[in-house]
Design a protein that fits this description.
Length: about 280
């Protein structure tokens, strides 16, 4: 990692341990991710839509906290040493899915679809988990950043999106091994995430373009049901992305006992190079 990346001084989030414990109880750690999509032009006589953005929601699979890649004995990808950890949930996606350009279009740079091929984004998101076994709902509000194959290269060739990702995400990464920051690689972490998904899931990144009409047979490189063992498969890796959720507010609602149900809200506050979570107990 670049030595110029600024890291806030912040302890582990007070919700982190319980969140990880609860997620471990889920057979499949699915959550609902909501984004905003620019509203299409109105089809009525007025050209101005009633609202500039429309909500979009879908299920995603939680893939661990950024810089803390979950152990997987089947993953042969080279791993980063535990130089950092964070409180930033991740999921993987295909760059051809609509959520990626949505994160760019609603981010600080208001990026066009053509810019969504690289790293960047930063659009607002909300993520919700329902952990049935403990009757607790977790909700995270914040922004999400997309990590693409261009995340690492010579500093002079970095795009504004790469710089934005490293600045925003890097600030929320805690240093565990001071002095070893230079050995940690964004690209290695990205490949580690690719290796952590199954060969069948890797093969999905070679599917025909999602959401396009079915017309004839797809070409040889884009077919359903493929399995990918090569961690550097050019077609799959070109479409593979890791998305990092950077929460500014986290809520847990414990409904396990109606007589004592509680909501807790944690809000991230930063200043003077430090970050901390403020905790409030609320009625559910």
């Amino acid at each position: 990692m670049s030595s110029t990346t600024h890291h806030l001084t912040a302890p582990p989030a007070p919700w982190r341990s319980q969140f990880l414990t609860h997620i471990s109880k889920m057979e499949s750690p699915e959550f609902v991710l909501s984004t905003l999509s620019p509203a299409p032009p109105s089809q009525t006589s007025s050209s101005t839509p009633p609202t500039p953005y429309l909500p979009r929601a879908r299920y995603c699979i939680y893939r661990g906290l950024w810089a803390s890649l979950p152990e997987n004995k089947h993953n042969d990808a080279p791993k980063n040493d535990p130089v950092y950890d964070s409180d930033l949930p991740t999921f993987t996606t295909d760059v051809r899915m609509e959520k990626v350009p949505e994160l760019f279009a609603t981010g600080p740079g208001r990026g066009e679809r053509s810019q969504a091929q690289g790293s960047g984004g930063g659009g607002p998101v909300e993520a919700v988990w329902w952990v049935k076994d403990v009757s607790v709902q977790w909700r995270m509000k914040g922004v999400a950043w997309v990590i693409a194959p261009d995340i690492e290269g010579s500093s002079g060739d970095e795009s504004s999106g790469v710089r934005s990702v490293k600045s925003a995400v890097g600030a929320r990464m805690r240093v565990l091994k001071p002095g070893s920051e230079g050995s940690w690689s964004w690209a290695r972490e990205l490949t580690g995430h690719f290796g952590n998904v199954s060969p069948g899931m890797r093969g999905s990144f070679r599917n025909p373009p999602p959401g396009t009409p079915v017309k004839g047979e797809p070409d040889e490189e884009h077919k359903l049901g493929q399995k990918v063992g090569d961690l550097e498969d050019g077609v799959a890796r070109a479409n593979f992305r890791v998305v990092v959720i950077m929460p500014d507010e986290v809520e847990s609602v414990d409904l396990s006992d109606p007589a004592t149900a509680r909501r807790k809200r944690y809000t991230f506050v930063e200043g003077d190079g430090k970050g901390e979570w403020k905790e409030e107990e609320l009625w559910p």
